[in-house]
Design goal:
Strand order of the largest sheet: 3-4-5-6
Number of helices: 8
Radius of gyration: 27 Å
Shape: globular
Length: about 425
């Protein structure tokens, strides 16, 4: 079991404990019998095993962010002592059922236009729901236009009885049809065998939501810009990356990013920012926030602390390699007026690897080598060489001295 697996199971254990603390608090307050508790999560999860990731996170490809049941299914549980008896239901439910269920529990009229159903009708009586189908959609992780969600749509799907149809929004992908009763892991696509069923279920999906068909003609994520989108800043031919935005106490928005002819190996890279005044519709012209002449300045982050001070943290790349990054910061108590913040203090965060650094590198290298079967065979020797050199450098006193000398160029710490 690798470190990511241990972290995942530790988080499960910790979450169980926190839920128990919440339920215990209800008992301590003596409101257990008059409180409805619903457990619902935002996506399914299949933990990826091994030391090599195949997705953006430690989850399997058919898990989070996918239209498959590994990323969609979750347990929805209701606890209401004296009202909801212990039991298990196989009815199709959805997270959109949470609001109508809670409204019903509070004896509040459920608006007719509200999607979802009241789950208490089955939970309290045992009579199965009349619903036979549920619909859903998958989006890109980060929305580009909240007013037009279809721009970021990747999949639409329907579960009708035991049949599930997945429609892909990007061109070039055929529909996928699965019989979940016989194939719960969605490994056998039956779309070519069942063309009439595909057509029928696809029509039901379009009736529920037409997806990108409902968006303006030019409103495609990669094929053009929606007519109501505007450019915040002039397009730059240079590499622009690592954006961050904060809301100031006065309602202004401040944003930052880094820009230059490259990244760590381009000495012209600097950190820039802009301001959107509260009530305005146009951002200010970009202004510099951090620039060490002759060194790349990258990966900025803005945040406001509890004392309402604005912090900018970024990395100056000392020797054009990521492991030579020098963490730096600026603090401002005067950042509410137009234009760039006035910085009250700037400094460097000194980082010196301790003895645990080499141990962590060795442990990670061993973990990766134990899972070489997950790496293409023609990459094995290259990966072994890289890990051996990385481990040697971590152990080497010469390398430790080299790192320390790089970081000693800065002059102060908190």
């Amino acid at each position: 079991m690798c470190s990511s697996d241990l972290a995942y199971y530790a988080m499960c254990e910790w979450f169980d404990q926190t839920v128990g603390q919440v339920l215990q608090r209800l008992d301590d307050l003596r409101i257990r019998d008059n409180t409805v508790v619903m457990f619902v999560v935002d996506n399914g999860w299949i933990q990826e095993t091994g030391a090599v990731r195949t997705t953006r996170g430690w989850f399997a490809p058919k898990s989070k962010l996918s239209p498959y049941d590994g990323g969609l299914r979750f347990p929805l549980m209701i606890r209401w002592p004296g009202r909801v008896p212990p039991g298990r239901s196989e009815s199709l439910v959805s997270s959109i059922d949470v609001v109508p269920t809670l409204l019903a529990a509070a004896q509040v009229e459920i608006p007719a236009e509200l999607p979802g159903v009241n789950l208490l009708s089955e939970a309290t009586t045992g009579q199965p729901l009349s619903r036979t189908a549920v619909f859903g959609e998958i989006f890109e992780h980060t929305a580009s236009n909240l007013d037009q969600p279809a721009l970021d749509l990747t999949h639409r799907w329907v579960r009708d009885h035991n049949w599930k149809l997945i429609l892909f929004e990007e061109p070039g992908h055929s529909p996928e049809l699965y019989d979940l009763r016989e194939d719960p892991h969605e490994e056998r696509n039956l779309a070519l065998r069942e063309p009439q069923r595909v057509e029928q279920l696809a029509k039901s999906i379009d009736t529920w939501w037409a997806g990108r068909k409902s968006a303006p003609p030019l409103a495609t994520r990669r094929g053009g810009r929606a007519p109501d989108k505007v450019d915040l800043f002039p397009f730059s031919p240079q590499h622009t990356h690592g954006s961050c935005v904060v809301e100031c106490p006065n309602g202004d928005l401040l944003t930052c990013w880094y820009r230059g002819s490259g990244e760590r190996r381009a000495d012209d890279v600097l950190v820039e920012g802009a301001r959107l005044r509260r009530g305005d519709t146009r951002w200010s012209e970009p202004f510099p926030l951090a620039d060490a002449p002759g060194f790349p300045d990258t990966n900025p982050c803005l945040f406001i602390d509890p004392q309402e001070r604005l912090w900018l943290i970024w990395q100056t790349i000392v020797a054009n390699e990521w492991h030579t990054a020098l963490c730096r910061f600026k603090v401002s108590e005067d950042f509410l007026k137009p234009g760039p913040p006035t910085w009250n203090r700037s400094d460097d965060l000194l980082l010196k690897p301790g003895p645990e650094f080499a141990t962590a590198i060795e442990r990670h290298a061993a973990d990766v080598l134990n899972h070489l079967d997950q790496v293409p065979a023609d990459q094995h020797e290259k990966l072994r060489t890289y890990l051996a050199e990385r481990t040697r450098r971590a152990r080497s006193e010469e390398h430790t001295s080299e790192l320390q000398s790089q970081f000693r160029i800065s002059y102060a710490v908190f």
